[in-house]
Design brief:
With 419 residues, the chain is an alpha+beta fold. The chain has 14 helices and 23 strands. A 4-stranded mixed sheet has the order 21-22-1-23, covered by helices on one side. A 4-stranded mixed sheet has the order 2-14-16-15. Strand 9, helix 6 and strand 10 form a beta-alpha-beta unit. Helix 8 runs parallel beside helix 12, helix 11 packs parallel to helix 12 and helix 12 packs across helix 13. Bound molecules: uridine-diphosphate-2(N-acetylglucosaminyl) butyric acid. Uridine-diphosphate-2(N-acetylglucosaminyl) butyric acid (EPU) binds next to helix 1, helix 5, helix 6 and helix 12.
Length: 419
């Protein structure tokens, strides 16, 4: 078993380069199934979810060639199967994009019901509603989901809730459908715009991504023969920005799109952190003990749920009592129990957590309960007095490229140890 061993406290200092966005990459890779040609994708994060997805594509008949650590060439001319390897797809959440992509390409998709981080119930009713509106017959049995249709036909689809996954999945399914599909009350996250840009580069006709109405004019085929670079990961950028504050440090975060970070920048300034930024670089530094704040997680452009645990670490050591209301996921406060083992004073009930700020945290053995919880615990370990051991690293490896090396370059004393 592997664990991370961190000796703190260390004020992090220096520069860090942000990788490509995980949540864009895990939609763009299955999107290549829609292309009857070859395409090259650059700036892919080298993480386990991406590698798993490439394996699935090979199983379906695509030829996947790594041209470097972060660049892959995918040839989807010979897709010969519409049944995804069910055991692999059950391992991670983003495998649901195979349903939209395979349905669009082959008229049939069979996928194991998606697993992933345990953040509470994760229904896919809005995805199914979208596929059915396009004319597909969807059945769920024995832990698998099957969607079938001879020829998908465009429709207008109103999303009952704002869902990142459902918005992207319906985009995937409708790119090759007959007519113009309209998604109303669509999610607006940067990775939705990135998926639309990727598909348009390959020959699709998608308009309005990034607003709450997306129009997809069906085209006959996507031909590929193009290169696309994945957008920088705003959650990774935010994790390092908050690490500067939690560790009493000074970090320059490079290769990010600061427009995507505005909700976080506003909160860092509100708690007393310092931020300066231009279009693609943000400098964050600590100069005095931070103070309390109240936060409600919301779909973009609200405060992102995927930065809630990392912000929670900052609030756990800020002066005063802060409240976080988590409006996206039911079980995203499990990390607070781990932080309490490190001396934090956090209580939660349902969707609300109360952080009574303490002066400092101390090292302890803790468990990464999900991906972002894992990142938050690394931040906590770097900021805490003494030695922290973090277990359950597979969660962290799913979504952060070279995380300990990036933290080490900023001065953290962090090692991966096999027990
Ligand atoms: N929901 C439904 N029905 C649906 C779909 C979603 O009720 O059919 C609910 C969910 O239960 C949740 C809310 O709608 O309460 C939002 O879910 P959404 O569909 O937007 O989430 P997702 O697509 O499953 C993606 C990211 C998550 C991120 C959320 C919210 C990927 C692979 N995952 O999940 O990322 O938290 O959007 O921004 O893109 C992470 O990276 O750590 C992570 C969990």
């Amino acid at each position: 078993m592997e664990k991370l061993v961190i000796s703190g406290p260390t004020p992090l200092k220096g520069e860090v380069e942000i990788s490509g966005a995980k949540n864009a990459a895990v939609a763009i890779i299955p999107a290549t199934l829609l292309i009857e040609g070859v395409c090259k994708i650059e700036n892919l994060p080298n993480i386990s979810d991406v590698k798993l997805y490439c394996e699935i594509l090979e199983h379906l008949g695509a030829k996947v060639t790594w041209l470097g650590k972060n660049t892959v060439e995918i040839d989807s001319r010979k897709i010969n199967c519409s049944t995804a390897p069910l055991e692999i797809t059950r391992k991670f959440r983003a495998s649901y994009y195979l349903i939209g992509a395979l349905l669009g390409r082959c008229g049939r998709a069979e996928v194991g019901l998606p697993g992933g981080c345990n953040l509470g119930p994760r229904p896919i009713d809005q995805h199914i509603k979208g596929f059915e509106a396009l004319g597909a017959k969807v059945t769920v049995s024995n832990g698998n989901i099957t969607a079938e249709c001879e020829k998908l036909k465009a429709n207008s689809i109103y999303m009952d809730i704002v869902s990142v996954g459902a918005t992207m999945n319906i985009m995937l399914a409708s790119v090759l459908a007959e007519g113009t599909t309209v998604i109303d009350n669509a999610a607006k996250e940067p990775h939705i715009v990135d998926l639309a840009n990727f598909l348009n580069t390959m020959g699709a006709d998608i308009r309005g991504a990034g607003t709450d109405v997306i129009k997809i004019n069906g085209v006959e085929k996507l031909t590929g023969n193009a290169t696309y670079s994945v957008v920088p990961d705003q959650i990774e950028a935010g994790t390092f920005m908050l690490s500067a504050i939690a560790s009493k440090g000074d970090i320059i975060v490079k290769n990010c799109i600061t427009k995507h970070l505005e909700p976080l920048i506003a909160k860092i300034i509100e708690i007393g952190g310092n931020v300066e930024y231009n279009e693609d670089t943000v400098h964050v530094w600590w100069s005095k003990r931070t103070t309390k704040a109240n936060i409600k997680t919301l779909p973009y452009p609200g405060f992102p749920t995927d930065l809630q645990p990392q912000m929670g670490v900052c609030l756990a050591i800020s002066n005063g009592t802060s409240i976080i209301n988590e409006s996206i996921w039911n079980s995203r406060f499990q990390y607070t129990e781990e932080l309490n083992k490190m001396g934090a004073n956090i209580s939660f009930s349902g969707q609300t957590a109360v952080f009574d700020g303490v002066e400092f945290l101390y090292g302890a053995p803790v468990y990464a309960t999900d991906l972002r919880a894992g990142a938050a615990l690394i931040m906590a370990g770097i900021s805490a007095n003494g030695t922290t051991e973090i277990y359950n690293l597979s969660h962290i490896d799913r979504g952060y490229e070279n995380i300990e090396e990036k933290f080490r370059k900023l001065g953290a004393k962090i090692e991966r140890v096999t027990e």
